[in-house]
Structures are given as structure tokens and as C-alpha cells.
């Protein structure tokens, strides 16, 4: 039995209540239950998380590097698209 | 000599030696586990146990002296935990038998108000995870392929005779031992059945069973394990990082 026999899973960890799940890494596991346990051992052993999601890597549809420009480089001459015209009140975190 | 050891020390040594010896056995998987993820899982369990061992041995004396300078006959761990890792199924069967026992025992100690209640209350959460880990793997190996089923069956049968010893009363622990044994049998039988394995029928106590670890009698592989565990400290007394 080698790692390559087992499917790959992507791990998402919510570090605190109120924050969203963040991608932490990936791992191999034979099924979802064990993927969750492996994720606990690999990514949350030092108190990093309050919740874990595991998703089969095969279930993720990713954007293609070939489409980089149309996807990620919007025209810079439309400043109204960028919400930069108001001040953020003091004390607001995670924005 | 045993008669002169104070009662709380007897219990701290028994529980501490269980944790220390099993921790060392699990540590032997480092670099050898079937997959990387499982290697990390076993190492995490080993580190949990090492943490418990340090607290328990410190209750009985100097932790380093107790771990590295005692002779084989002075260790009072169960013979189950000193058994070699064998194949992965053997390690999982040993984990299933021991972590189920330790989980039930610590839960009972945590409910009491004895000397070990604070430690047990903290450790019981760690041990619950060890038990879950062992159960998950027992289910998958037992109800897996023909090969994994056969290996898991062999492992469960081979270690069965070491399981009666766990319920010998330990002086200084206020525990309902027969009740603990009944709960252990129920829990382990349930997991084995769900894993499509049969509960072994061999004896768990008496002539053909093992069981004098608490009295300092150990099986042959333990001496070699101890030599490996202690040689660095004995070769360089007082050395530090």
C-alpha cells in the first residue's frame, strides 16, 4: 500500500469562530472519515482550529492558468470597482 | 522491595510505565509507517503518551532516573504495551485493546477525587482520540480486503492473552475493576463484531495467559526495547542538549 493508492483531499481549517475556512494543505486518505482525522493530526495539533472541512481534490474545479488574463486582470481604469472611497472605522478587524 | 514502595507511588509507576513503554513502541514507527499521514498520527499518539508518562513518573520521583536508570524488573507496565509493533495490524490491535482500557480507566479516575483525577481529566480527551483512531482502523482492516482481514484477525488473537492482566487491581487506584473489565469486553467485542471479526476465544487469565507485568515480570522483547531506550542516557550520564 502506498500513498498513491489513496485519493488526495484538500483541507480547510477555520481558525476561530467568525472567520471563514482557509485552505491549509492537502493529504492522502482512503476515505472522508480518515481524511478528517489525518487533517486533525497534520494541521490542527497546536490549537489552530475549531472546525475542519475535507474535500476530495478531484471535486474541485480550478481556473486554468491559460485564462489568467481575462480572469484576473480587470481594466485598471475603472477605479469605481475598487471599494477604496470610504474610511474603515477603527476597531474593525478581518476586513 | 515492592512492599516498601508507598501506595500512591505504586499507582503512578504502573500508569506511568504503561504510557512510557507504549510511547516508545509507537515512536519506533517513525520512518517506517505504511504512509506518511499514519506516521504522523502514530507519532502524535506517542507524544500524548509521553506527556502523560512525564507527569506520572514525576509524581513517583525523578522522571529521567525512573525512565532511563531502572532495570527491567523494576518496570511495572502491562506486558501488552511492551509487545513489538509487528505489522500494522498488530499495532492497531494493541492500540485498540490498550486505548479502550485506558479511556475507561481515566474516565473513572477523572470522575473521582483521588490524586490522579486532575491528570486523568486532561488525558481522557487525548485518549478518546487514540481509541477512536484504533477503532477506525480496526473497522477498515477487519472489513477490508481478505489480506487485511486475515492480518487483523491474527493480531487480535495473538494479543488476546495479554488483555486479562489489565484488570488486576492496582494499589492506590479507587476503581471498580470487575466493572471496568465488563465495560472493556463489551466495547471491544462491539468493535470487533462491526469489523466482521470474531471475538477471540482464548484465555485471558490463568495458565496460558500472560500477566505479571505489574509485578515486574516481562516478556523477552522488552529487554531489547529497554536497552535501546536507555543506552544513550546510560552512556552519557547527565548529558543535556
From TrEMBL, chain A:
Name used for this protein in its record: Phenylacetate-CoA oxygenase subunit PaaB
- What Pfam family does this protein match (any one)? PaaB
NCBIfam families, per database record: PA_CoA_Oxy2
Q: Which gene encodes it?
A: paaB
TrEMBL record, chain B:
Gene3D superfamilies for the chain = 1.20.1260.10
InterPro entries noted in UniProt: Aromatic_CoA_ox/epox (IPR052703), Ferritin-like (IPR012347), Ferritin-like_SF (IPR009078), PaaA_PaaC (IPR007814), PaaC (IPR011882)
This protein's GO cellular component annotations are: cytosol
| UniProt xrefs under Pfam families | PaaA_PaaC
Q: Name one GO biological process term.
A: phenylacetate catabolic process
Name of protein: Phenylacetic acid degradation protein
Task: List the top taxonomic levels of the source.
Answer: Bacteria, Bacillati, Actinomycetota, Actinomycetes, Kitasatosporales
Amino acid at each position: 500500500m502506498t500513498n498513491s493508492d489513496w485519493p488526495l483531499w484538500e483541507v480547510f481549517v477555520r481558525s476561530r469562530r467568525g472567520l471563514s475556512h482557509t485552505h491549509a494543505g492537502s493529504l492522502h486518505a482512503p476515505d472522508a472519515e480518515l481524511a478528517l482525522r489525518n487533517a486533525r493530526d497534520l494541521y490542527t495539533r497546536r490549537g489552530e482550529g475549531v472546525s475542519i472541512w475535507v474535500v476530495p481534490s478531484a471535486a474541485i474545479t480550478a481556473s486554468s492558468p491559460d485564462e489568467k488574463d481575462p480572469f484576473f486582470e480587470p481594466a485598471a481604469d475603472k477605479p469605481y470597482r475598487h471599494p477604496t472611497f470610504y474610511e474603515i472605522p477603527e476597531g474593525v478587524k478581518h476586513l | 522491595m515492592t512492599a516498601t514502595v508507598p501506595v500512591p507511588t505504586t499507582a503512578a509507576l504502573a500508569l506511568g510505565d504503561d504510557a512510557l513503554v507504549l510511547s516508545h513502541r509507537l515512536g519506533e514507527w517513525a520512518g517506517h509507517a505504511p504512509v506518511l499521514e499514519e506516521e504522523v498520527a502514530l507519532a502524535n499518539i506517542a507524544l500524548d503518551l509521553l506527556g502523560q508518562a512525564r507527569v506520572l513518573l514525576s509524581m513517583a520521583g525523578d522522571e529521567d532516573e525512573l525512565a532511563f536508570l531502572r532495570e527491567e524488573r523494576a518496570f511495572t507496565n502491562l506486558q501488552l504495551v511492551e509487545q513489538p509493533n509487528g505489522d500494522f495490524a498488530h499495532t492497531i490491535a494493541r492500540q485498540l485493546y490498550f486505548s479502550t482500557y485506558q479511556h475507561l480507566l481515566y474516565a473513572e479516575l477523572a470522575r473521582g477525587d483521588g490524586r490522579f483525577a486532575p491528570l486523568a481529566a486532561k488525558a481522557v480527551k487525548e485518549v478518546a482520540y487514540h481509541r477512536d483512531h484504533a477503532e477506525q482502523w480496526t473497522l477498515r482492516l477487519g472489513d477490508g480486503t481478505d489480506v487485511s482481514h486475515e492480518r487483523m484477525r491474527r493480531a487480535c488473537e495473538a494479543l488476546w492473552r495479554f488483555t486479562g492482566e489489565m484488570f488486576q487491581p492496582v494499589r492506590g487506584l479507587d476503581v471498580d475493576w470487575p466493572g471496568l473489565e465488563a465495560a472493556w469486553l463489551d466495547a471491544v467485542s462491539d468493535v470487533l463484531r462491526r469489523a466482521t471479526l470474531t471475538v477471540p476465544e482464548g484465555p485471558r487469565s490463568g495458565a496460558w495467559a500472560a500477566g505479571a507485568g505489574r509485578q515486574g515480570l516481562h516478556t523477552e522483547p522488552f529487554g531489547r526495547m529497554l536497552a535501546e531506550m536507555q543506552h544513550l542516557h546510560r552512556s552519557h550520564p547527565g548529558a543535556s542538549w
